[in-house]
Amino acid sequence: DIQMTQSPSSLSASVGDRVTITCRASQGISNYLAWFQQKPGKAPKSLIYAASSLQSGVPSKFSGSGSGTDFTLTISSLQPEDFATYYCQQYNSYPWTFGQGTKVEIK
Amino acid sequence: EVQLVESGGGLVQPGRSLRLSCTASGFTFGDYAMSWFRQAPGKGLEWVGFIRSKAYGGTTEYAASVKGRFTISRDDSKSIAYLQMNSLKTEDTAVYYCTRVRVYDSSGYYQRDFDYWGQGTLVTVSS
Q1: Is residue A42 pLDDT above 90, yes or no?
Q2: A46, A67 in Cβ contact below 8 A?
Q3: Cβ–Cβ gap A98/B47 under 8 Å
Q4: Distance CA B25, CA B42 (A)
Q5: In this predicted model, what pLDDT tens digit does every residue of A25-39 receive, in sequence order?
Q6: How would you write the pLDDT of chain B (127 residues) with one tens digit per residue?
Q7: CA A33, A36, A42: angle at the middle one, nearest 5?
Q8: Residue B59 contacts residue B71 (beta carbons within 8 Å)
Q9: N or C: which end of chain A has fewer CB within 10 A?
Q10: Which residues in chain A have Cβ-Cβ distances shorter than 8 Å to B63?
Q11: Is there a contact between A89 and B115 if contact means CB atoms under 8 Å apart?
Q12: Sign (positive/negative) of CA torsion B84, B122, A93, A57?
């Protein structure tokens, strides 16, 4: 199975900060990577697919990059509504696997 | 508007069965693959299984933890995807989500996009 490792596990940042979350795959996955945002008690929401394609309706402050084993999700200017947990997921091979999540808190 | 609504969750004893439904609207259901995910209380996301559209054979894939116990099927005439869960274990306790999976050609390779998620349904396996 491909292991996905996110870092950090949690972070605290101020409104307006640029935030970067990294995701590393235990083996190469090309660009078969998605990012999701989940708020407490809610279903996950798709942000990014194919490593860098912005989901329709998602603000352009979110961006994704990377290929192979190393990926990043960047929030260019953190806003209070961005308080959430973020997950990466690989779908290069079965079983599809997730990172453990990164909890973003607002300072 | 695309909507996915899960139903069928509830409290069930270990060893028993339960069938979840994912009712879709707002798009041509038969044109899309569907997938199920779950999230145990306080834990991260876990993939459960996947069913291709009929155009790609309608075949299925499963996580090892559920293979042989869970079965995914689809009724395109009703726009419903099902998750039949047999021989349930306490560790199957989770919120179960269905997702739409958009499959598209990207420079000769198939890409996937898990673009819409249902609100989830809670399954509790306990005696």
Answers
A1: yes
A2: no
A3: yes
A4: 30
A5: 999 999 999 999 999
A6: 999 999 999 999 999 999 999 999 999 999 999 999 999 999 999 999 999 999 999 999 999 999 999 999 999 999 999 999 999 999 999 999 999 999 988 888 889 999 999 999 999 999 9
A7: 155
A8: no
A9: C
A10: 95
A11: no
A12: positive
Torsion angle defined by CA atoms of residues B34, B85, A38 and A2, in that order, rounded to the nearest 10 degrees:
-80
CA torsion sign for A23, A99, B115, A27 is positive
Instruction: Say if B67 is an interface residue toward chain A (CB within 8 Å).
Output: no
Cα distance between residue B84 and residue B39, in whole Å: 17
Residue A45 with chain B: CB contacts under 8 Å? 117
Q: What's the gap in Å between the CA of B14 and the closest CA on chain A?
A: 25
pLDDT interval class at A107 (50, 70, 90): confident
Neighbours of A107 (CB within 10 A): 9
Is B110 in contact with B104 (CB distance < 8 Å)? yes
Contacts of B113 in chain A (CB under 8 A): 34, 46, 49-50, 53, 55
Name every chain A residue with its beta carbon within 8 A of the beta carbon of B109: 30
Please work out, in degrees rounded to the nearest 5, the angle formed at the alpha carbon of residue B11 by the alpha carbons of B9 and B16: 95
Tell me what pLDDT residue B107 has.
85
